[in-house]
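Need a sequence for this fold. Nothing fancy.
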């Protein structure tokens, strides 16, 4: 592959034009178009992608295509809108060699009757290699669901490093109870 030396890929959606918003198509297709071109990719930075715009909900094969990034170690999601919490879990679980998850203002629509304290499905496993979490608050309901999943998934990763805001500390106490003994580095940004 002609991009075999590439280690980091940053994907930004096109600016909205008069012809419509192209973010949905880019979001939907990048996994299919790019996964085979970057066999040694280690970092993937997805910013401001909207998988809900223009019918952009990912197809089932999208997650299989994401697993084509087999050498990926760092996933950075920033300002992303996803169709559901299930999609979030499947995206994170697609990268089997993932070591660092960076989460910045990621959101998805919550059903009116869906409260953040409901049981979190445990159908997607975390990569065993995941040990660093950079977690920046964006939506307390979405953040709470994500932290519950991270702490309750079967065979959870042993987090060694976490970098977060002070507002996250009280959001999900069971998360801290579950991972506290494995942490070797904690960075907390006071607000």
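Here you go.
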């Amino acid at each position: 592959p002609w991009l075999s030396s590439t280690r980091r890929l940053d994907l930004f959606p096109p600016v909205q034009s008069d012809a419509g918003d192209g973010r949905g198509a880019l979001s939907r297709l990048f996994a299919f178009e790019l996964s085979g071109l970057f066999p040694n990719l280690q970092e993937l930075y997805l910013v401001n992608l909207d998988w809900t715009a223009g019918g952009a909900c990912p197809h089932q094969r999208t997650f299989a295509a994401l697993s084509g990034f087999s050498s990926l170690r760092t996933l950075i999601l920033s300002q992303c809108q996803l169709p559901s919490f299930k999609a979030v879990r499947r995206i994170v679980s697609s990268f089997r060699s993932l070591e660092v998850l960076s989460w910045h203002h990621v959101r998805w629509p919550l059903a009116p009757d869906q409260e953040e304290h409901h049981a979190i499905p445990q159908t997607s496993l975390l990569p065993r290699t995941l040990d660093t979490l950079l977690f920046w608050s964006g939506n307390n309901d979405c953040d709470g669901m994500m932290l519950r999943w991270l702490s309750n998934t079967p065979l959870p990763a042993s987090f060694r490093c976490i970098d977060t805001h002070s507002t996250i500390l009280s959001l999900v106490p069971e998360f801290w109870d579950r991972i506290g003994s494995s942490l070797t580095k904690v960075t907390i940004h006071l607000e």
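For context: Residues 140-152 form the longest helix (13 residues).
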